[in-house]
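Discussion board: Methods & Data

I've been asked by a reviewer to show the raw model output for two of the constructs in my manuscript, not just the figures. I'm not sure how much to include, so I'm pasting the format here to get opinions. Each protein appears as its amino acid sequence followed by a line of discrete structure tokens. Is this the kind of thing reviewers expect to see in a supplement, or should I convert it first? Here is construct A:
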Amino acid sequence: MSPPPPPPFWKSVATTGALLLFLLALEQLHLSRRRPYVPAVVAALVHDLVHHGPNDEDELGLQAGYYEELFGASRDATRANDPEAEWQQTIRIDESHRRVAEYMLYELKPDLDFVGAGGERIVTNRYGMADRACSEAKPAGTRRIAFLGDSLVRGLGAPFGRALEPRFEEWLDATQRDDAVKSYEVLNFGVEGYRLTQILDVACRRVPPFQPDALLLGISDLGASRNFAWHLARLVHEGIDLRYPFLKELVARAGITARATFAEADARLVPLRREILGGCLREIRARADALHAPLVALLIPTVIESDRLPERFVEMRALLRELAIPTLDLLDTFADAGDLAPLRVSRVDHHPNEAGYGMILARLKRRLSADPATATLLLGHAVR
């Protein structure tokens, strides 16, 4: 039996044209073009179909395993049948980090200068900061800002010296010096993957010897993600001291033991998320007060559509307001950027690249200029 003849050419053209018109209609229904009469359910479906990148659910799944992948772990391992194998796979350190059998679990190695497997030049000073050389004692006439956070503070995604922290320091030193301040230093205490519970320990133990004049706490959507509890769960599993009384009380209330699986520990901590994050912020502020160094929070965006960021920061913004922590909000940095691809590492890695960090710095300078009180806390005076 012979196969049926192919459809006439005009039918193929008509079908292709109809498909293109349908896709164009979907694009016009994208959330960025949404009008009030478009039902929210329909708009959400269209957003998932046409936006360039993972949908929100998929992205959160990627994010949940993102930092573990940075250290060579596999997301598939978190679904292993053997609970102990599951735990072993949640942290595997790469060549630029070292494992420590204490509260922070891992840290950057000191005195590095090499090109990693991914092609990134990795540089650290003798204190294990992703930063240029510095002394522990603050030089005379220097205003020193301790910059704390995760990968966006560390500068992942840009060449060494071209991320946010070093360019912020260059701008301060070039434009903001006066008779009282001969130079500025911004010390980079950022480490990729650090949760707020780890950043707390940086503020309490690593920062004080450097005698900072101000603390700048960088908070990203990666650092404030739903997998915030990974660090605490790991400490309990390994029997490592939780160090801070409020964390011990909250973890005890959650009923987590070393025998719990990773999924069980994470699920038990989720309902206490707000108390854990709020407790960390209170403790960081208290340590800053003890150093007579004002604390300023900095909300730093990853390079995704700006309308997807605010909901991820609702809880954090509320906590910062309640605790009266001055905040510089940069989440609208990429609102008018148009095509985001040239500003981030890749389609699925939303860290800024050099150009993206440049835009974040420009927005930071604008926010500081518009907020003399907060600028004075950081710089010692309003922006000139």
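Construct B, same format:
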Amino acid sequence: MGRNSLLDWLRIRRRGLEDALTARGKAHTLSLERYRLHRAIAAAIAEHAQGDCLDAGSGRSPYKTMLQKYAEQVISIDVEDRSGDTDMLADIQSMPQIHDASFDTILCSQVLEHVPRPWDAMGELARVLRKDGTLILTVPHLSIIHEAPHDYYRYTRFGLAALCEPCGLEIKKIQATGGLGCFILHGISAGLLSTLGGIPLIRWVVFSFNYLILVRLPDLFEQLIGMPQLYPCDYLLVATRVDTGDSD
């Protein structure tokens, strides 16, 4: 098997692994990075999600069930239907099919790095958000190339602020959800589960080892060894729409 063939095989295995974990509601057990990101998003959803909610760039829809606990209605959109229950096919850079000021809450997780015009995407998210509505958004700072060739950007807190300001979005919080340890261990966990985790006789041992030794145990030390302020793995942004001329 050549190098390219091996990489293609690993990518296929990785996609299958993520599909299976998401279907079981266990996407956060993949790696320390996913665990910490999931925990931050879950806390933000519990605090801010309400009313009409847009899951923008929903992908496999790992947070749809959680959003439905707090929101009256959840609409999921993406450029393709990966979950089998995406409500609308749409590109967040241009959503003319969605009216101005339609949503009280928007979740957009790990999407902005995959759009070539993130300033347009942020403008659209702000446009469809109601006055005083809340945007919950996550982006990577440290990440391998993924979803190639549609992998365009990595973000800093300063870049996020620069995207929010022209759109009338007031930042309430920007939080690093992991550090260097998350970045390093994510690749190890994904490789381990995509290979040895596929062997039926030892699958449960591999998944248990990964979750206990490579996810939960390092989580206790990640704030120290990961140095999230210097090497943030991901950022979570919470912002509100304060500048809109649209009437609700």
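Answer (T.O., handling editor elsewhere):
This is acceptable in a supplement if you add a one-line summary per construct. For B, something like: The first strand starts at residue 52 and ends at 56.
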